[in-house]
Structure formats: structure tokens, C-alpha cells
Amino acid sequence: MKNLKLASLNGYDHTRTVVTVGDVKVGEDLVVIAGPCSVESEEQTVITAQKVKEAGARMLRGGAFKPRTSPYEFQGLGLKGLKILERARRETGLPVVTEVTDPRDVSWVCEYADVLQIGTRNMQNFSLLKEAGKVGKPVLLKRGMYSTLKEWLNCAEYILAEGNPNVILCERGIRTFETYTRNTLDLSMVPSVREISHLPIVVDPSHGTGKLSLIEPMSLAAIAAGADGVMIEVHHNPCEALCDKHQAMPPQMFSGLMKKLQWLRSHMNEMNWEMEDKSQEQAL
Length: 284
Ligand code: PEP
Ligand code: MN
Hints:
Blueprint: E1 19-21, E2 24-26, E3 31-35, H1 42-55, E4 59-61, H2 79-92, E5 96-99, H3 106-109, E6 115-118, H4 126-134, E7 139-142, H5 149-161, E8 167-171, H6 189-196, E9 201-203, H7 205-209, H8 212-224, E10 229-233, H9 251-283
Helix pairs in contact: 1-2, 1-9, 4-5, 8-9
The structure holds phosphoenolpyruvate and manganese (II) ion.
């Protein structure tokens, strides 16, 4: 793809980017990011953070600025929410992934976030992308719900071109004619991204399907397709969630899913080692 000077795979050097967040290596480790859709209270966020940490999540997610379809829906707690996330990080040691929606907020949100999330509705907010490119913080760039792979990678290019190499892509589903699921989770993007870009990619099956029953199979499928991780919405008490309650996973179910993801990833690694050994034997 033309003009992807920094986001595309260099013709000779196929090294993939590893984005380091604390002791987490995105692009190398199995990275599960989990937590509530939105930060609602200290109790909700800290309890959920503790539960996902116990289950094996590597990062905590939670929105303090919520881009909602209606202006009358809960918009997030803003600065208060960021302070709650800071507390949850202190309690659990989990790095925090949180969304920024306004270019004017980027520099001060960085004081609270370990990873800045740019959501689907803002994927092509070029002034936001440029601001995120000017700070050193890793950026999780979600795919626009109407965007092609080329448009998505060009948005990553905006961040990279400002001097920030720490971009993580996140497939979160696109709008199609299907209405059974909230979005159509396009898992073909995982191997497609790996074919043409060196950037790590994670998958968000919570927004990708909007249905609790579909999150586990699609998470496993994402890892089988080669994703570097998944991002899952977990709430300690889903029926009380203020946002996206139908896709909120209870902690016990999340813990079962974590075990399956770890099992799958370790068997995929074994399979790759065996195949490497065989090809080396054949070469001798
Ligand atoms: C989110 O992850 O909190 C979110 C709002 O997702 P998206 O931008 O993909 O809708
Ligand atoms: Mn949500």
C-alpha cells in the first residue's frame, strides 16, 4: 500500500513491533485487557480490577470519557474517573487503558493513562491522532466502524509520523446489514494486518458482537487467527452496569475464558516450535 511509509512491513525486514507497557509486551505476550465499559464508581472499578487481575488479565480497561450515541446517556466521570483508575492501578499493578476523545485532553490524560485509547468514532479525528502522536504513550487505535484496512493503517501512520512508534491496532467490528450482532467482527483483519503491517493487533469481541454468549468463541477465534490479545468488558455486577450491560462479562466467566485462552496460546506456541524443528530437520 502506497504512502504507508511507517505502518507497513519493510520489504526486507519483517520484524514485528513490540509495544512495551510496564512489564507487558504487546506483540509478544498473550495480552488480555479487561475491565468495565465505563468507570462508574471506585468500588465497581477496584473490585473488577482485582477480579480480572486474579484471573490473569495484563491490563485494565475503563472509560472515563464515554462517546455515547445519545447526549442524554451516561457520559463518564471524566477526571474523577481517571483518579479512580489511578487508584485501581495502585491496588492491582495493572496498567490502565483509557479513551481520550478530545485533542485538548491528550496531554493531561497521559498523566493517568498507560495506554491512550482512540475509539471507533474518532479513528479519523486527525487532530486527535496528531496530538496522540506527539506524546510518547502507547496508543490503542480502534478500527473505524466504516473503515477499510487502508484507511485504518493511514490513521496509524498519522500517529507514527509524529514520532510515536507505539501503536496497537484494535479490530472492534464494522457496520454491515447484519442486525443479530451489534457489529460484524471482522477477524480476517488479523491475518491481513499481519501480512502488510508490523504493528501488533488485538481484538475487541465485546463491541464486535455486543452479545455475552458470543464473546468467548470470538475471543478464542481471534487468538487462533493470530491476534496478539483481546480486550474484554468485564463488570463485577453486570446487571447494574451503566453502559453496555448486555455484553458485560461477569468475573467468574472471564476467569474460565482466560484459562481457555492461555491453553490455546500455549498449544499454538508448541505447534509453531514443532513446525520450526521439522523444517530445520528437513533443511539439514
Ligand atoms: C470502548 O472500548 O469503550 C468503546 C467505546 O469502543 P468503540 O470505540 O470500539 O465503540
Ligand atoms: Mn462499551
